[in-house]
Give the backbone structure.
Amino acid sequence: MCRFIAYLGRPIIVDELLLKPSNSLIHQSFDAGEMSEPLNGDGFGLGWYDHQIRELPGLFRSITPAWNNNNLLYNASMFRADCIFAHVRAATEGTVSEENSHPFLFGRYLMMHNGVVPNFKLIKRKLLALLSDEMFLWVRGQTDSEHIFALLMQYVSEMTEPGHKLTDEQMKQCFQKTIANVQKLKVEAGIGEEVSCFNMMITNGHRIFGSRYSSNPYEQPRTLYYSTGSRFQCTNGVSRMVREDSTVKAVLIVSEKLTKNSEDWTQIPANHFIAVDRNLEVHVGPMTH
């Protein structure tokens, strides 16, 4: 059911997140501890921003398992970035291909999803009918995730006024509208009772927005945690979030805790929205059902 990491803060070397922690994302690709099926070997993706070079992110995706990709294992210690999205995939909808691997890229935005819309094929055509020509043509793969993100980014684009940035509340409204319309299509198709999970993250490299959401309010969504501090470090095999300088901050949002230090992690409640602003302040609040 996929696992991911979102990071925003002081520049960090990628292997500090992907390789070094005891429960690193690479480890989660073959032994995820908070899933009934521990294997996430259907490809991976890495997106990162270097704003000194350009505002558009870099993107590296592969169909090979993360634990067995020599390019990733060799080069992870050579990437340094202040915003990182990384994802390992367990395919539920769509073939194993680069087009179906996360993160997805639209303009300055990266997007990744941990969840599923069961029987997505029954609503796919009607969802495509909701899209503008731009977003319809943007979709390249087969996953439910990419189609849902197309709808989300359409609402983001429609709500954004020239010269203005969306507020946290407006971004939450876009998430809620997307989820509500997907659920409406499910009901119309007779699959409204099937549980969909929307653990979704998007970023423009300066802010992060995300959801932990289940279409059934009585069923817990997939796990999602965040951690804040001045920096995340790995020393002599021990990883932790360091809190030593209030003027320098780092924020991690993860499907699974990277370390065993429970005090480092706060679980995002079910059916809640998380926003990380430019000042690296974290805001968590409920979403309407």
